[in-house]
Amino acid sequence: MKKILALALALCLVFALAAVAAADWAPDGPVSMIVAYKAGNGTDNTARILAKYAEKYIGQTIVIDNVDGGSGSIGWSKLADSDPDGMTIGFINLPNFNSTIVKELGTYTTANFTPICNHVTETSIIVVRADDDRFNTLEDLVAYCKENMTKASTNGPQASNHIGAQAFANSAGFEYIDIPQGNTADELLWLRGGDADWCVVKVADIASMMTEVKVLAAFATEPLKEEGFEDVPLLKDLGYYPDWLGSSRMIAAPAGVSQEVVDFYANAFKQAMEDPEYLEASASFTTDYKDPEASAALFAQQQEFTESLSEGFWPDIDY
Amino acid sequence: MLDTLSLMGAGFLNALSPINLLMMAAGVAMGIVIGCMPGLSAAMGVALMLPMTFTMKAETGLIVLGAIYCGAIFGGSISAILIHTPGTPASAATAIEGYQMTLQGKAGKALFTACYSSFWGGLLSCISLYFFSPLLAKLTLKFMSAEYFWLSLFGLTIIAGVSSKSVIKGLMSGALGLLLSTVGLDPISGVKRFMPTSYFAEGINTTCALIGLFSMSQVFILAEKKIKERARATKFSDKMSLTREERRTIRPTIIRSWIIGNLIGILPGAGASIACFLGYNTSKQFSKHKELFGNGSIEGVAGSEAANNAVTGGSLIPTLTLGIPGESVTAVLMGGLIIQGLTPGPELFGKYAPMTYTFFAGFVLVQFFMLGIGLLGCRGFAQISRLSDAILIPCVTVLCFVGSYAIHKNIMDIVVMLSFGVLGYLMRKFDLNTAAVVLALILGPIGEKGLRNALRGSQGDFRVLFSSVVCWVLIILCVIGILSPIFMNRLEKKAEKEAISGTGEDLEKLTEEDSV
Question: Which residues of A touch B339 (CB under 8 A)?
């Protein structure tokens, strides 16, 4: 009897240990979340909202660590160099992140990161001034651009909105002059002030000036979901640039983290992004959860896309 | 119009929240402490306190910085009056009459006059802030590449104006700043320029450069001198008040000084230190009691103190609307704005209008705090003004390190701050102008982007630079700017000479204390 009892106990112990080993990984202290931009920036705002509601599902405090500078490369270098123990994760902004690799700003490559899940997606759109009678449809703009040299403001040389403008111009077959500004606010100021004819921005950028600009087309493969943008024509349908273009804010860990860690965070953030309170707090931007596989695919695709840009994408301009 | 009024009202309601009120009181008190310590100027104070505001809400952070600014400009008068050493260069003219009054046992009266005039100067300057900034913000849609090129050139010509001693040295300093401003990614093509590491991709961090050039270099200068005990602040027993008659006497002086200070504030480059002399001199010219000047005239104190505080509201106008700081303090303040993710321009009066009007309302309320804290705390602050350098130097050093590190939590920022500290020390040894370096560092990229974008847009046609009314107005201002040092020098020399003639004091000694 004793032997059987001992055996049973031993078996229980083995099962218990096995269960512990198989149990989901969970962080045992505050989680550090690196944001490669300064506090108050767009990415920082959305990251803080997510962090606030995700703490419940992660079971630990999330400490946002703003490491800005070097066009984001300082923060991403820090993330790449962190221990892959799951205690440090961070936000990666596509395609700006990919640009820093192409421009060799950081010491990292895509191999230094493991994508966890996508958080926010912003689709690029083409806008002109609301009172600009020359352009009522995208066809007007294309026809005009083929006849005349137009000016398009951008948010910086080879930054996301410059990529969008160039992709549109290449697919429609015209040349234009880019007027780089340091940020999207100034990019739109240059359009409204009349020193640019058109420009490419993201959906959320024009929320405060809907009466001043009109949207001609979106870089999307299916109709936009954002309120007021449902009827925006798609570039693909009009016969121009056929793929989705925009920016993504994705959560990633340093390369080398275990699959348990990835699954744990993907699951926790998914629950947070479905939390009713989160949904209420995040009404101003588009939450777009993608599971680890889909996120990794987007991550790789954006890198491939950004690298492909250097070969014949940019016009040969003598600055 | 009604919209603006309701925004103004809402601004006051927001500004009256407990946290904002607390921050106003703290900011003003901190500003007065910084101001009345000889060796610490308003720009240094705001730069050192900047990192504290990162975690605050944008409006609260700006209110704190504004409160330190106003407090410091007033605080300088306390040591000017009591120990004949202006706490900041902006109070140099106050020392003349103020100290005379102290010698006559009327220190309380002098301090009350300084506080009262600073309050009115600051409060009246808010009027222009409220009414001119939205107007100018609407005009910013007229400011495109070509206009920004001329605007930055105008700012750069003012460099010649701030360098009161030698135009050549001012231009040398400006050129150094322009050279340093080319570090980083090219704003048009994205090519790397003079970048040892990717840390410099966004250029040299202006805030770190500023802390180094202004505060760290001051530490080196102070440490080099023999640590000296400052004169003991005179204990004063007379009541801090003015009779109704006396208040009536200084009323026109305050109004005149407000207009002078306000206009000087709006001009980029010319700041409170010039305004106080002009205000003082004007009060003397218009006074009915000229014989009192040099023997402790309350009008003299009022003229100087109302003018330097009137600069504060004025210098915020170009900073918030065009992103061109009016003086070095607002250059730091603009850094605070950008760190909060806000860009100067029409957005501040459109999308972010509630924040902006809360800041404005806070700025108005700050003046009342300055009056209250100034009057109640004068006796206490007077003791701080004679704080030994032995305590001051380590305190400022710690703040320099913490301040520059806190911005990005990057050790490279401390390296940059220290390098600029050494640079600033050497520059001041050779009489070069550190403020010109900072202005050029900020304006360089704006001008470069403007010129190159304008010419690219026109496909190389230079006529684009002369194609609008705004361009021509700015060109004319540039010409005035280039000629202004001659004019300004004469004006300031004249003001100083007239100021000295009464007292026989060597005023150079007062102003050289720190010329930031």
Answer: 38-40
